Amino acid sequence: MHQITYTYINLPHLYLLPEKLISPIKVIKDTHNKIVMTKDDLLVVEGVRKTFGGLVALDEVNMKVKKNLLVMLIGPNGSGKTTLINVISGIYKPDKGKIIFENKEITECSADEVCREGLVRTFQIPQLFTKLTVLENVLTAYKDNPGTSFLKACVKRTWIQRETEATKKAFEILDTVGLSHMWDKRASELSGGQMKLLETARALMSGAKMIMMDEPAAGVFPSLIDKIFKHFVELKKKFGLTFLIIEHRLEPVLPYVDYVYAMDRGRVISEGKPKEVLNDEKVIESYLGE
Amino acid sequence: MAAIDFLLDMLATVGVYLMLTLSLNLDSGYCGIPNFGKVLAMIAGAFVVAFFPGRILATMLGMSGDFVTDNASMIFQINSFLASNFLISTALFIATIIVAIGFGMIVGYVSTRPAVKIGSGPLAITLLVMGEGLRVIGTNYAPLAGGSIGISAPDVFAWAGGDRFLVVSVVVFVFSVAIFFFVNRLTNAPLGRMLRAVRDNEIAAESLGIDIVGVKLKTMMVSSAIAAVAGALYAFYSGAVISTAYTRASWTFIPWAMMLLGGVANNVGVVTGVFTFVFLRKLIVMYKAELTPYLPFDVLWLELILYGVMVILILMYRPEGLIPEKRTPTLKMSTLKKMQKT
After folding, report:
1. d(Cα A220, Cα A253) in Å, to the nearest integer?
2. What does DSSP assign to residue A61?
3. Lowest-pLDDT range of B8-22, B139-153, B276-290
4. Nearest residue to B56 (alpha-carbon basis) of B88, B27, B34
5. What burial class does residue A181 get, using C-beta atoms within 10 Å of its C-beta: 0-12 exposed, 13-18 middle, 19+ buried?
6. Which pLDDT belongs to residue A217?
7. Closest among B40, B172, B153 to B92, alpha carbons compared
8. How far is the C-alpha of A142 from the C-alpha of A165, rounded, in Å?
9. Which residues contact B185 (CB under 8 A, 6 or more apart)?
10. Which CATH architecture is the domain A69-93+103-288 placed in?
11. Membrane-spanning residues where (chain B) (predicted)?
12. CB B321 within 8 A of CB B264
């Protein structure tokens, strides 16, 4: 495998120029002159490998997620989907390969650093702060709050204004996901579907540019799945968000999906528009078995 | 007179334990750090009192001799000097407290850093061992605090004459009240919410951009500084530092029991727990002789047995404590309700 070297060119003002003028500049190439990242790509996973002892969980995974799309990651159990999200979000470090988010390499970043870059994840089993209220859960995700500093926390006037602004924003977000009426309830009192929505609300509060979700429809009442994905599409439009979603239940969510990656045994075996991928023989074979 | 002495003694003991348990509540109750080495920072504060102010004054007064071996005669001269020098006494007291805060912060950082990334179990053991370690060092290394015999500390309240006991008890209590308001301020701010988030779910907190290692280290530095102040004040109150007296049972496990009884992550609960425990303790001490004929064991063990039984009962029947953790909104509820409606 060749060594990839990257040239980072971050000139945001060039986005204002016509496409043909900026396209030769706004790319990242490897040593073989192959384009690794274009201006439309938000996340690039390049040759990522992850093993646990003798088990190869991810094997040379390549993936590109374009901005403002709802991208789905499918595959049978044990295909490496959750491991990939764990690697991208900084919970696991890859053995090999690179991960680039918004022109910045995040391969060696810790989970909190990845989040601060604007790449936030949710979990298959919602990871909430169960003793905190719904509103407090959302407010926890607010970045750069001076009131979280030991030096400033004692002096209320140093943080009260930002806290008020943050609370207003939190209520707006809770309203968007339909949870504002439950703001004073403890997170542990929510239903499974509401917990998933609260995780989404927290991700929005953190100022995420991209949200990775691990099975947001798992364990959710079927009628609520449709509602949740409609919310995602609304959020995508309203906040210019990008989604990378792992999901097992394909039928109810396909109408909302822009692009699909299919994985099997730690590799990406197919990618493209939803119908193309679902009709791909390799994908059918991976789900039905050889 | 006995009643006043009892009240003053209780005031000072409540003060010291309140500071210690509030600091424990900050790191363990709010942030979820399993601090089984609370005695560590307490000893650090006491050792500052044992080591620095006496030597400084001895140098100032041009005394010759070894501060540890000639401790009794040197402290006699120092205290005679301090009795007629209110300003120097107060300045020395304040300077010692400041050094204790700094030393407490260093001890908090050093004791937490090695195992903070590994997990709760190793961190708990590390803190426990370090607490024991510093006590053992103090017991065996005489220059620090007089070894197993101990050392007398300068009496910075000697100027109060016959009212010394009253003054020092009130000072200790005033410090504990100030620390209560300080900790309450911290925990009622967005910082308190962040600490509770780290305690509730580290994975979620980290995935929301919170640097949990940094948060834990800072929390331990601040809580250890508070415990060091408690240790320094206790040393000034008792007038001596004896390393062997700083046992994990008295200065780690009893604060834990006080916190569990009052209510974890509730500062008012901590106050309740401390008052209940100290009152019970003083009663047992007062009525030891009367209780002896009714006990099938030495009355010395009654106190610890009662504490143990109490902790078991709390954990079994009321694990949230007498006053459970409450919602602590950073803004007024009326403001929040108004915001929700708009």
Report:
1. 13
2. E
3. B276-290
4. B88
5. exposed
6. 81
7. B153
8. 10
9. A153, A154, A156
10. 3-Layer(aba) Sandwich (3.40)
11. 6-27, 39-61, 81-110, 165-183, 225-246, 253-279, 299-317
12. yes
pTM of the full structure: 0.88
| Pick from B175, B223, B232: nearest CA to B51 | B232
Q: Which residues of B touch A136 (CB under 8 A)?
A: 193, 197, 327, 329
Q: Which candidate, A260, A264, A266, places its Cα nearest to that of A290?
A: A264
Residue A182 to residue A166: CA distance in whole angstroms: 17
| Beta carbons of A73 and A9 less than 8 angstroms apart | no
| CB pair distance less than 8 Å for B209 and A123 | no
The residue whose two tokens read 């604060």 is B255
Whether B201 and chain A come into contact, CB under 8 Å, resolves to yes
CA distances from A53 to A56, A57, A240, B36, B120 (A): 8, 10, 40, 35, 25
The Cα B129–Cα A96 span in angstroms is 39
**pLDDT, mean over chain B:** 94
**Has residue B306 got a pLDDT over 50?**
yes
User: CA A18 to CA A15: how far, in whole Å?
Assistant: 8
For chain B, the domains span: 2-246
- Residue B162 tokens read as 């016959």
Whether residue B59 has pLDDT greater than 60: yes
Q: List the beta bridge partners of residue A41.
A: A66
- Per-position b or e across A191-223, b if 16+ CB within 10 A of its CB: eebbbbbbbbbbbbbbbbbbbbbbbbbeebeee
> Which residues in chain B (169-188) have CB-CB distances under 8 A to chain A?
182, 185-186
- Is A158's Cβ below 8 Å from some Cβ in B? no
Residue A24 has pLDDT above 50, yes or no: no
ipTM: 0.89
Do A204 and A173 touch, CB atoms closer than 8 A?
yes
Do the chains contact at B189 and A156, CB–CB below 8 Å?
yes
Coil/strand/helix, residue A93: coil
Question: Which letter does DSSP use for residue B155 in this model?
Answer: -
- Residue B1: band (very low, low, confident or very high) from pLDDT cuts 50, 70, 90: low
Going from the C-alpha of B121 to that of each of A85, B115, B143, B163, B265, the distances in angstroms are: 28, 9, 34, 47, 20
Q: Worst-scoring range by mean pLDDT, A89-103, A226-240, B115-129?
A: A226-240
- Output the pLDDT for position A85: 96
Q: Where are the domains of chain A?
A: 1-39, 69-93+103-288
User: Do B186 and A153 meet the contact criterion of CB atoms below 8 Å apart?
Assistant: yes
Which member of B193, B201, B336 has the closest CB to residue A128? B201
Token readout for B104 is 């407490």
**Is the confidence at residue B283, as pLDDT, over 90?**
no
Q: Does B217 touch chain A (CB under 8 A)?
A: no
